[in-house]
Design goal:
Layout: E1 8-9, E2 21-25, E3 30-34, E4 42-45, H1 47-62
Antiparallel strand pairs: 1-2, 2-3, 3-4
Length: 63
């Protein structure tokens, strides 16, 4: 995995800590990690799989 990734945390995360994830993207992959464990495991998705996940999450949130 590239060490030059730029990680972003959701603006909904707030500053209290808690359960947050960070996301970084490269041209061919989307990376997701626990914001409290920056050296821990990273999930990697294709852009198509990540887009499908986001679409499902937004649909579930709208219900």
């Amino acid at each position: 995995m590239s060490t030059n990734l730029v990680w972003s945390k959701s603006s909904y995360s707030g500053t209290e800590g808690g359960n947050c994830v960070e996301v970084a993207s490269s041209p061919s992959t989307i990376h997701v990690r626990d914001s409290k464990d920056k050296t821990g495991p990273v999930l990697t998705f294709s852009p198509a799989a990540w887009s499908a996940f986001i679409a499902e999450a937004q649909a579930a949130d709208a219900e």
